[in-house]
Design the sequence.
């Protein structure tokens, strides 16, 4: 299967590429940043360094034409961003509009299956609608709108799957390099990976906080996937997250949308 990956030099995109190669995919890719010298990027994988948002429609169509699958691992803007007011306009530009445009062009290029890397906040917003998370946080709203916009752009010709990812720490280098993540290194020194558990933040300990915030935090703890963090921190490319990408792209596997 011919698969195009956007964001192939990022942490998730890089290990996704390795997993796809294991299953015989022919891969071309686009990414914003180069691979560190210490990381062996597969020579059989094409790589164009460019800002996806700066390319015109014709350039993207030319890149995607002839491919069966697409993985959008570029990430967009996440909840660490602190944009100026109105914040939603910023998140909409990089999460909603960019994804909608990409899926529309992918459909025009004849792509049949796609995977968009999204956020586990989508899960929480759907699980507890009474918390009105999307109404209270523009980033969460943008992730929900991203799915709706992408599905609309896909029509009935392109199947889109969404990977609702939790916080994932890591870098492409086990040693120090410019892509390394010093925070993850520090965490693994202080706490063995197998024993890492999310602690209740100080601002959650106030008795004045609503009960619903405790419910949210308890759910986060229950959903904390130590196995995923352990395999990723060790540089494994066979974690459940990456296997689910393969299952989404494999035409013979069941397809779950949204």
Sequence:
């Amino acid at each position: 299967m011919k698969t195009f990956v956007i964001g192939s030099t990022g942490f998730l995109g890089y290990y996704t590429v390795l997993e796809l190669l294991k299953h015989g995919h022919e891969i071309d890719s686009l990414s914003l940043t180069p691979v560190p010298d210490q990381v062996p990027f597969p020579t059989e994988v094409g790589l164009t360094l460019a800002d996806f948002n700066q390319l015109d429609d014709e350039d993207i169509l030319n890149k995607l034409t002839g491919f069966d699958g697409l993985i959008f691992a570029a990430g967009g803007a996440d909840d660490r961003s602190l944009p100026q007011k109105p914040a939603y306009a910023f998140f909409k530009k990089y999460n909603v509009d960019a994804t909608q445009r990409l899926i529309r062009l992918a459909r025009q290029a004849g792509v049949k299956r796609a995977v968009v890397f999204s956020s586990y906040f989508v899960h929480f917003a759907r699980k507890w609608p009474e918390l009105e998370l999307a109404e209270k946080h523009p980033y969460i709203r943008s992730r929900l709108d991203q799915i709706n916009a992408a599905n609309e752009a896909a029509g009935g010709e392109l199947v889109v799957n969404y990977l609702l990812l939790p916080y994932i720490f890591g870098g492409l280098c086990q040693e120090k390099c410019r892509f390394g993540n010093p925070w993850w290194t520090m965490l693994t020194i202080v706490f063995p990976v197998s024993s890492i558990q999310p602690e209740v933040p100080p601002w959650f300990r106030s008795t004045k906080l609503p009960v619903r915030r405790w419910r949210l935090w308890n759910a986060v703890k229950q959903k904390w996937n130590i196995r995923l963090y352990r395999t990723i921190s060790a540089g494994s490319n066979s974690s459940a997250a990456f296997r689910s990408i393969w299952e989404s792209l494999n035409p013979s596997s069941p397809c779950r949308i949204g």
Remarks:
- The chain is about 45% helix and 15% strand.
- The longest helix spans residues 87-109.
- The two ends are 23 Å apart (CA to CA).
